[in-house]
């Protein structure tokens, strides 16, 4: 499965492949750790670090920047950017431990429980809205 539909558009794995190709071609990264090992992960499926780095805000920013610069192959990447940003924030919240760090990396506490509850409800609705290209709920399909 290389594409997922959302209410706002289609999440395309090809957008990430295109960003990696552009970065390899020009020899510079867009401030992210995306590399060939991230897009050719088949032999390293159990490496969580590759998934976290691929679904990081820096990759989302790199995609958005490449789109704004008019890179070929990134005609509509806003849904992919949104998908990546949701998972980046989810990783941050789930790995939070300290109450002294800002933003989503701050540990859940009585001070931010309302915001976090709202965030989890928003993510739940988003995840429930994801569909395969043939319209089947992503949560109900076999893959």
Task: Give an overview of the whole structure.
With 143 residues, this protein is mainly alpha-helical. It has one domain (3-129). The chain has six helices and two strands. Strand 1 (3-6) and strand 2 (9-12) form a beta hairpin. Helix 4 packs antiparallel against helix 5. The model has no long low-confidence stretch (mean pLDDT 90).
Describe the biggest sheet? 2 strands, antiparallel
Instruction: State which percent range the strand residues make up.
Output: 5-15%
Q: Taking strands numbered 1, 2, ... along the chain, how are they ordered across the largest sheet? A: 1-2
What are the secondary-structure elements, in order, as H or E? EEHHHHHH
Individual helix count: 6
Distance between the termini: 8 Å
Which spans have pLDDT < 50 for at least 5 consecutive residues? none
Mean pLDDT: 90
Structural class: mainly alpha
Helicity, as a percent range: 40-55%
Number of domains: 1
Anisotropy-based shape: globular
Count of strand segments: 2
Radius of gyration: 16 Å
Organism: Patella caerulea
Protein name: Transposable element P transposase-like GTP-binding insertion domain-containing protein
Domain Transposable element P transposase-like GTP-binding insertion: 2-106
